[in-house]
Amino acid sequence: MKINFIKTFSLILVTGMILLTAGCGEGREKDDSDDTKKERKSRVDLLGAGASFPAPLITAMADEYRDVTRNRVVVNYQSIGSGGGIRQFVEQTIMFGMTEAFLSDEIMADIESQTGGRAFNMPITLADVVATYNVPGVDKGIVFDADVLVDIYMERITNWNDPKIEKLNPDKDLPSLPITVVHRSDGSGTTNIWTSYFSRVSDEWKAKIGYGTSVNWPTGVGGNGNEGVAGAVMNTPGAIGYNSLTYALLNDMSFGYVKNSSGNIIEPSYAATTEAANIDLPEDTRVLFTNTPAEKGYPIAGFAWMLVYENLEQNNAINNRTEAKELVEFLIWSITDGQELSEELGFARLPEAAVERNYEMIKQVKWRGEEIGKELLKKKNIS
Amino acid sequence: MHQAQTNTDIIKKPLPIIYRWLGDKIFLTVVFILGLSIIFLAFSMAWVLYSEGRLAINEFGVIGFLKGSVWDPGVRMVFGALPFIFGTFITSVVALAIAFLPAIAIAVVIAEYAPKWIGNIIENFVHLIAAIPSVVVGIWGIFVFAPWMRETVYMPIFTFTANNYPSLLPVLGNPMGYGMTTATIILALMIIPFTTALTRDAISQVPKEQREAAWALGATKWEVIRMAVLPYARGGILAGAMLSFGRAIGETMAVAMLIGNKNTFPFSILGPAATMPSVIINEFREAVGNLHLSSLMAIGLALFVISLIVNLIAAYITRKLSITGGQVV
Amino acid sequence: MIKPKKTLKQRNIKDRFMVSLLVLSTVVVLVPLLIIIAYVIINGVSALNWEFFTEELGSPSRAMQGRPTGLIHTMIGTAVVDFLALIISIPVGLGAGIMLSEYPDHKLNPYLRIINDTLNGMPAILKGLLAFALIVKPMGTFSGLSGGFALAFVMIPIIARSTESALMSIPWTIREAGLAIGLPRWRVVMSTIVPAAKTGLVTGFLIAFARAAGEAAPLMFTSFGNNYFPRHWTGMIFGPVDTLPQRLYSLAISPYKEWHAMGWAAGIVLLFFVIAIFFTARLLTRKKVY
Predict the structure, then answer these.
(1) Whole-prediction pTM value?
(2) Which residues in chain A have Cβ-Cβ distances shorter than 8 Å to B287?
């Protein structure tokens, strides 16, 4: 009799649960009220996960695609990081992965031996990284070149009025202010692109620090996430950091221009990023194009890839042909019509060359030997 | 009243042996299994960490991994845990030292000084500290607290030291606001509710006679608290401190956002550092290389073992001082 | 006991001094809390509107173009996952706490206490990893249930320890009285000790819940997240489901100001959600005080 304290407590919990679940059941019904019952039954949920950077674009695509398919196909994309995306893709808990670091040869070989087919890295969008800074009295547009950036991050240039910086910015009044270097502390595709640029332009950096989603930084303070870096840069006079262009633009941060390998000073922009990827792409698109040879290209940029199995039936997360078909259809849509969403959200458009490569790969995607990729492309009059 | 009634009811009825003896057996078995399930959880966690971290342990050896001070996922692929062990140790011990007395003070204010309704408000507010998501604390820290600390506390200290004792500057470090001291202060704030809750609870259970005896001796209110109340509550205080310490060791997001994340020695007082959980949360999501990921899991395992050792020591000290629960010896 | 060296006046001064010190510490701790709460509210209040409580999230372009967007699926998801966590963690934590306090001589206890404190010290992300290994992998899918387990792993050690502490503060004489009138031990515990300690017990549940309710890291690989309602309500338990702390995190790290505001609004909702739970639990325990 006296146990009723616990009894009541658990009773309340259980009732609460039932009420809530009932409540949300109701919510669903209301939400679907304008659909026919049949349509609701045939709703297909696609599950993807991975890199955080392209998450806003993919979710926007998902949103748009849901309207396009009149609520039939719902894509659930969660940002769990590139590493997470790759791992869940390999573990086959998700239908597609998303990463800013392409699959290594080792993982590609593993997948090939396990599933009897390849894993495709399909570029969906581009990531660009800009040098953000807080120099009192100087707005955006400090010009950097590769050497200066590397020297700053190796602590060889420690003041904003260093002759090397002044030489590149004859018209700017740079103060005598010590430089505080800020870098990302969490593993990040942004860091991957930033450090791969440094590795491309400096052999010393390549030998000592290398590139990757996290590296052993020679100096500086680590901010967690884009907002960690942005906070540290905006609040510390004399700080320099790096953020994605979108983040810098939308949060009113000053960022610098960079001299590319052709000697042109490039103002970071979505067009300049797309331009950077206009190079000879290998068939599997697994390439880093930082320090791009493209003349008008912004040199600190890279792809974000979608990961898909060649033999879709081998992926445990995909249960039937319908899901496989819808996945491929979404993939095709995302590199064609879906790209329309890019600029508004602050993403660079995929260049033609990459779209072409994607078509080639999609053509090889199969379900139990059936070439569904080819069929779907044909249906859309793309050959 | 109600309770007494029930008890006499029971006494009147003859109690079947099955109710007494079997009931106790079943009860003990149930709570035993529930207790055991915690041990099962802990060991399955250790097992998961071990099996994921085995690669790194085999590569560097247990000792090599623990005393390695290089963390290089870029070129050399060498991973050592020492900077993170050191960072965790310093931040959590100092945070507990900062938080301990204020936490008890709040409990005392709630239980002894404040009018009941104010006490209730304060108590709920303190519990709310535990409920604020670490990421919220972290972002607030980045944009508000750290810059404020830099301007009002660190810069004056830094300029003073630079003018008078320039040789101490390397120990003091870069006063940019993001660093060990900032993270430790925030950590101290975040662990307060646990000590406060358990202390307040223990204080409320102190028998009236205990206080009355002290009052009768002519003690002032503070002396009553100091001599009659707090010693009686020390079991709860200690349990609370251990909970707080656990939170301090394991706190991740807010620390990762404020500590500045420097993965190599030397650390300085104001400058950036790193802790074991902060490096795990920082690099886990994007770790692509197997050895890198495995090293992060091995850090998790090291954290488990260190936490175990710390708790063993705490248990030993507790027994030495023969402090048992709320009982007064 | 009282040192004779000091005069009464000195002792009174010390008394005053200590009072002010105590009040000062309370203020020093509460001020940052209030500043943080104010910061959350100021940043998030602009995004709190009717749609916020009625619509699904969708994409950032919805927010940027002012189309309806909200977090209703997230709030319901949070309630489901949190309640699952409570249902899982309270029996285990309570049982272990009873074990620790009522059978002080049991051989298991010294180990249990140490292991429990150790578990409490593990970062929440590793508890998510444990739930991933124990629940997600065997089930083959991310689910609200696994999120509930992950949060329960955060709560269990706190509940066990606070339960022990709450039960321990009940004087042994009460237990002896119960046993003396011939009650079996389990009746003594369940009928006298647990009800007598219930304020303390509920406090323990509350701080454990408060701690778990704000955790994003353990949910990342368990309840996983979802920008929409699942297809069917069972999907809340057996499929990927959205939760406030995790959504707050992903909104906060996005580059969009509109989403930042929504993230802070999610923070406001989360805080009020927790306050509501506090209030309910307090009311419940108060009514039942004999």
Answers:
(1) 0.83
(2) 83, 187, 213-214
